[in-house]
Design a protein that fits this description.
Number of domains: 2
Order of helices and strands: HHHEEEEEEEEEEHE
Strand content: 25-35%
Structural class: alpha/beta
CATH architecture of the largest domain: Sandwich
CATH superfamily of the largest domain: Cupredoxins -  blue copper proteins
Distance between the termini: 31 Å
CATH topology of the largest domain: Immunoglobulin-like
Radius of gyration: 24 Å
Shape: elongated
Helix content: 25-40%
Length: 233
């Protein structure tokens, strides 16, 4: 029963609409890969420390530990191991972070998003489309989200697409978003912003390119204001 409960505990956070370990975008896939590498490496480190700890206890019980042995533990365990771990993490993590920077991209789609207490105003400047709490995007296409806030600090977060960025009053931050598969993805404000924070959710709907073009063509009237509700998975 203990083993089955432990297995259930390890698997409970690996799927679902708000799980970053179920990626559906290139950035999310790299973040998940980095997480699993860190999990595996530091689990190995923890296991090694536990084994050496038991060894040291037995050694201490048999005879006094020499000062040279103590120095070796301090140098290798207290200095070398953390330094090597941090360097390895930086070598892998920095390139992953750089690939999330919203650099210029051909055919990138721009979407302007304004956070309000407690809803998201979504605007497509090239098509005069405005939505509430819903984003429509094409798959395998770079989307640049221009994020701003109308009141307090909010945070735009889509776990399965691996993106999160704060919305700061008085400035515009740009976030790169990309989905690799068509589907519906849930998002949430990740910065406490008042009593309605828990309900400040939104939906990202990703289409194949032809379907996205067809969706755009349904909005021919200028300055159309469409209010949509969140769509459940």
């Amino acid at each position: 029963m203990f083993c089955s409960g432990g297995l259930l505990l390890t698997q409970s956070g690996c799927s679902g609409p708000f799980s970053s370990l179920d990626p559906q975008g290139p950035a999310a896939a790299e973040v998940a890969m980095l997480w699993w590498l860190m999990f595996g490496f530091f689990s190995l480190v923890l296991l090694t420390v536990i084994v050496l700890w038991h060894y040291a206890i037995k050694r201490r019980a048999n005879d006094m530990v020499k000062s040279s042995a103590v120095s070796g533990w301090i140098i290798w365990g207290g200095l070398a191991l953390p330094i090597v771990s941090i360097i390895a993490l930086l070598l892998v993590g920095v390139p992953v972070g750089q690939r999330m920077i919203p650099l210029e991209a051909d055919n990138a789609v721009q979407i302007n998003i304004t956070g309000h207490q407690w809803y998201w105003q979504v605007n497509y400047p090239d098509h005069d489309i405005q939505l509430i709490d819903t984003l429509h995007i094409p798959v395998n296409t770079v989307v640049h989200l221009h994020l701003s806030s109308a009141d307090v600090i909010h945070s735009f977060w889509v776990p399965r697409l691996g993106v999160k960025l704060d919305l700061i009053p008085g400035r515009t931050n740009v976030l790169r978003l990309e989905a690799s598969a068509a589907g519906i993805y849930r998002g949430q404000c990740a910065e406490y912003c008042g009593v309605g924070h828990a309900h400040m959710q939104f939906t990202v709907i990703a289409y194949e390119q032809a379907a996205f073009t067809s969706w755009l063509n349904t909005f021919k009237s200028p300055h159309l204001y469409l209010q949509e509700k969140n769509t459940d998975d």
